[in-house]
Design a protein that fits this description.
220 residues; mainly beta; ten-stranded antiparallel sheet; two-stranded antiparallel ribbon; 12 strands
Length: 220
């Protein structure tokens, strides 16, 4: 149960933020226990243009996900419009989980993390987390990857900045978006040394410059 509790905490705070730094990859053809060469699925699509100051439905960030990818729903292994790759990750205790990267026109735009079943102590084939890494996606107030803190605070004045040592990640959040987190680049942190007193530390709003940018968006 200690293992289950730890995994649940890591997923809940966002520890499983995937980086493409030479990770092992596995094929989509069925469930595999060992890493294999990544398989690419190519599907046809007429891409919708994102016009200036307009967020199309295709790229609109919502509380439960984006078009075609929803939290709690099955991972669309044959998702229309995209190429997908499956990667194998090995956790610090040796347990294995998969990351699914989503590509559009040779650009990686999303990363999907399967939902963890704490009862069965295993990952499922449903979506548990979506990481947005493309600036094509915007929320209803036009905030997305590469938006600045100043742009964020103009539309979300009731904001706060916080840090978790568990995943070593900085966030800028607001009380309106309960299932969406906006990740900041820790290299842009300009505050004092953080005194850790718990899993979540609220920071001074001046700890980042207004020009600091959102580097990733997490939906969970």
């Amino acid at each position: 149960m200690e293992k289950t509790h730890k995994i649940a905490i890591l997923i809940g705070i966002g520890i499983i933020i995937f980086g493409c730094n030479g990770q092992n990859q596995a094929n989509f053809a069925g469930k595999t226990e060992q890493p294999e060469t990544a398989q690419t699925i190519i599907l046809n699509n007429d891409e919708t243009d994102v016009k200036e100051n307009t967020v199309t439905e295709k790229y609109l960030i919502k509380e439960n996900g984006v078009e075609g990818f929803k939290i709690g729903e099955p991972i669309p292994f044959s998702a229309e419009n995209y190429k997908m790759k499956k990667h194998t990750e090995i956790g610090e205790e040796g347990w294995t989980y998969f990351i699914y990267t989503v590509w559009e026109n040779d650009e990686e735009i999303l990363r999907l993390i399967p939902l963890y079943d704490t009862t069965k102590e295993e990952f499922t084939d449903n979506i548990g987390e979506i990481n947005i890494i493309s600036d094509k996606f915007r929320d209803s107030r036009k905030i997305g990857v590469n938006s600045t803190i100043q742009e964020f605070t103009e539309v979300y004045p009731d904001y706060y900045i916080w840090y978790t040592y568990i995943s070593d990640i900085f966030f800028i959040d607001n009380k309106e978006r309960r299932n969406i987190q906006y990740l900041l680049d820790k290299e842009e942190y300009q505050g004092e040394e953080i005194q850790i007193s718990g899993d979540m530390e609220i920071l001074d709003k001046e700890s980042f410059e207004p020009t600091a940018r959102i580097k990733e968006i997490r939906i969970f």
